[in-house]
Write a structure and sequence with these properties.
123 residues; mainly alpha; 5 helices; 63% helix; 0% strand
Length: 123
């Protein structure tokens, strides 16, 4: 956020506090400090607060645009991720070639028997 927007936001907040004081307590702080509502200085302060409010209007849409931009970049990073859950596609192992192992025996539970026999021979 640029310094212009920060300054405008601070002035708009001060104006909002002044309006809150007027609404709740019927006390106009700007008029009290600067010589009444009809004085030139008070009218300048009111004008500056009004301009600051207008400058702050683009700030209403800026956080939304930043949030959408960050979501878009986050979503593009993780697009197509496969976490192997029940909702994701799982890899298919039917095309795995076990015949590349020369010690593979082609009968039921042969991979288990092969590992089991190998463990017995290691002992």
């Amino acid at each position: 956020m640029g310094s212009l927007y920060r300054t405008a936001l601070v002035i708009a907040i001060i104006g909002a506090v002044n309006w809150g004081l007027i609404g709740f307590f019927q006390f106009d702080l700007v008029a009290t400090l600067f010589g009444g509502t009809d004085s030139a200085l008070s009218r300048i302060i009111y004008g500056i607060v009004g301009i600051a409010g207008l400058v702050c209007i683009p700030l209403l849409a800026k956080p939304l645009a930043e949030a959408e931009a960050s979501n878009a970049s986050t979503n593009s990073t993780y697009r197509g991720a496969n976490y192997q859950t029940e909702f994701a596609e799982e890899d298919e192992f039917s095309d795995t070639n076990f015949n590349s192992n020369p010690n593979y025996q082609n009968n039921n539970n042969s991979a288990y028997k092969q590992n089991n026999n190998q463990n017995k021979s290691d002992r």
